[in-house]
Specification:
Blueprint: E1 4-10, H1 14-22, H2 27-30, E2 34-43, E3 46-55, E4 58-69, E5 77-85, E6 88-101, E7 107-119, H3 122-151
Antiparallel strand pairs: 1-7, 2-3, 3-4, 4-5, 5-6, 6-7
Helix pairs in contact: 1-3
Length: 155
């Protein structure tokens, strides 16, 4: 599968965006294709979760571990997603949240998003491959919309 990388500056603080992405349990409320999330283990900076994804008649679950490094006032935070078990050959996913100064002293954040995965099933590979870029854009847009919903429109 092709990898997808995105860098974007958003009008929210690094902490706000970090918290939004780290709130894995809420994903079914706003992410397309995410049907459910069950937290298996949650320690301070480590979350193990079973995620169920589905589209039309297809439904798969996978186990992932999110390693959380919160941002500081002037230091970047990050979330590294480690694949543990499920329908993928591999899954590499990371988010980096770098604090930025926006106009008029408003906090902004540069978000670096990276995802690379491949399904074991040739059928799933073909299905996802055909819509990969569109699906990744929709995924990122869903997070941006969620930020507006939770934190309000940009000032």
């Amino acid at each position: 599968m092709p990898a997808h990388q995105l860098k974007r500056c958003l009008p929210y603080s690094a902490q706000q965006l970090f918290d939004l992405v780290a709130d894995v349990e809420r994903y079914p409320e706003f992410l397309p294709w995410c049907q459910s999330v069950r937290i298996i283990n949650h320690r301070e900076n480590d979350i193990v979760a079973e995620v169920v994804i589905g589209y039309k008649i297809f439904r798969e679950s996978f186990l992932s571990q999110d390693i959380l490094t919160p941002p500081g006032p002037r230091s970047a935070g990050r979330i590294d997603v480690k694949y543990r078990d499920g329908p993928f050959r591999y899954l590499n996913n990371s988010w980096v949240f770098t604090p930025q100064d926006g106009p008029h002293g408003q906090p902004h954040c540069r978000v670096d998003f990276h995802i690379d995965f491949e399904f074991r099933s040739p059928l799933f590979r073909a299905m996802v491959g055909a819509v990969f870029d569109k699906a990744m854009r929709r995924l990122v847009t869903s997070f941006e919309n969620r930020a507006r919903q939770i934190y309000g429109p940009p000032v």
